[in-house]
Design a protein that fits this description.
elongated
Amino acid sequence: MLDPIQITNEFSPLIKQHNQVNQKKNASSFVDTLKEFIDDVNNLQKESAIQSEKFIKGEPVDIHTVMITAEKAKTSFNLLLELRNKALELYREINRLQV
């Protein structure tokens, strides 16, 4: 009959280190994703401002393009605002918890 494999503590530091690295990757990937989203919103806002300026100056710009870029910027900003509001709501709820 075969003996069951004995798990030794020999590899436990490596396992712990592997788990810590994976947790850091997950945490940093969320932060990176959030930063990318904020950068995208900022870029949409800038593009909308550029298109609006061109239209105001009388440069040949299609009004539909101006309106579409403005709506994209507005929608993405509203989404970012809602994410912030949900994060604040979550933070307040955690503060209300009794330990």
